[in-house]
Amino acid sequence: xxxxxxxxxxxxxxxxxxxxxxxxxxxxxxxxxxxxxxxxxxxxxxxxxxxxxxxxxxxxxxxxxxxxxxxxxxxxxxxxxxxxxxxxxxxxxxxxxxxxxxxxxxxxxxxxxxxxxxxxxxxxxxxxxxxxxxxxxxxxxxxxxxxxxxxxxxxxxxxxxxxxxxxxxxxxxxxxxxxxxxxxxxxxxxxxxxxxxxxxxxxxxxxxxxxxxxxxxxxxxxxxxxxxxxxxxxxxxxxxxxxxxxxxxxxxxxxxxxxxxxxxxxxxxxxxxxxxxxxxxxxxxxxxxxxxxxxxxxxxxxxxxxxxxxxxxxxxxxxxxxxxxxxxxxxxxxxxxxxxxxxxxxxxxxxxxxxxxxxxxxxxxxxxxxxxxxxxxxxxxxxxxxxxxxxxxxxxxxxxxxxxxxxxxxxxxxxxxxxxxxxxxxxxxxxxxxxxxxxxxxxxxxxxxxxxxxxxxxxxxxxxxxxxxxxxxxxxxxxxxxxxxxxxxxxxxxxxxxxxxxxxxxxxxxxxxx
Length: 514
Fold this sequence. Notes:
Structural class: mainly alpha
Helix content: over 70%
CATH topology: Amino acid/polyamine transporter I
CATH superfamily: Amino acid/polyamine transporter I
Shape: globular
Distance between the termini: 24 Å
Strand content: under 5%
Number of helices: 21
CATH class: Mainly Alpha
Number of strands: 0
Oligomer: single chain
Order of helices and strands: HHHHHHHHHHHHHHHHHHHHH
Radius of gyration: 22 Å
Largest sheet: none
């Protein structure tokens, strides 16, 4: 093995040591850890929440500027490049890689919260028709265009560097483009920060998955949710996504994403046909139209002149923080799907296709939740407050024929959906732990396994120490440093796009800086 393929010890070991300290603290001081993360949730949201919202607005604008400008004509990989993946596999991997457990946990419980406890900024009365439209449209927006814009603009940045400029799949070239030769000196530090932050980020998503699967098991078998149940589930999930990761993108992830998407579609069609179809269609259409009228208003909700309102901290800030955290590393993974397509094609499909699926999903399940609550068929709000948000979907599914079968299928989808997100993240983290890997190289399996185990341990500790609020607090911790990196990635994509566009074949070969 040459030096370029050896472990980057200065990036890997400091991050692992810091994660080890965090894990030890969680094991021996679970209650203290929960209290600290809860304090951080509201403290950071109050002080830097506006920053995350501003980043989200700018990224949305810049992503479409990149697509619709002359840079959109750039062919990723050059004029002779052809796609490595079919369009179906590309869309399913992008969809599943982005949503993880989010669409199945937060987006399922979210509409009832926004319906019954809307923010002051919404200017609507709780439980009203206007609150319903706000709730569905807000949830639609939070799980669609903003997150996929963040992932996609980062993917284009890495795709141009690796396929058009023949650079390694790493943050060094991004930093060099953004801040000059000094960027290469900071590469190891950035890789260490990313490894630490992303292990924590994936653990957040896995944490809510553990809670929801535990609720599903309780609904099916009557076995109460507990730390033992969460531990067993964590072991199974880690084994599943690590096995997928080790098998490589062309085998495990491609097949798992396709299967998961088919399960999603099956559940969606079943619920749409047997549920209140007309109600969901009406409310979904009105909510989508309202969304189109107020996209940036929905991107920036704070508690200006309403200091007692914590809605923004509980919801939108932690969402934008989580998407910021995932963006650079998911972008690194998604760049592998961009080869052979123009920048414009890649951005529009990678943003709009998953977004439309998420919007339809929320229209159906959000509409169903509102219908059950307002007709008195089932008191979803009371159930959420007594048993937790993770139980919301199972209350809903139990109202359908063959509810238990539907719940089993849904629990399976949680396992596979999370795996389709954790797989590429673990692979990308393993990649930046090794010197000089190209976009076509696979990192050593033992590094992928280490990353998977660490994510699982932290996820369990987050849930065991404080549940949802611990998860939200963790997002704010890891989100702030990664936001700076995201800004540098965006700077690099425009600078490198200008270089590639100036060449007839869109290929730019540069000597590495000394």
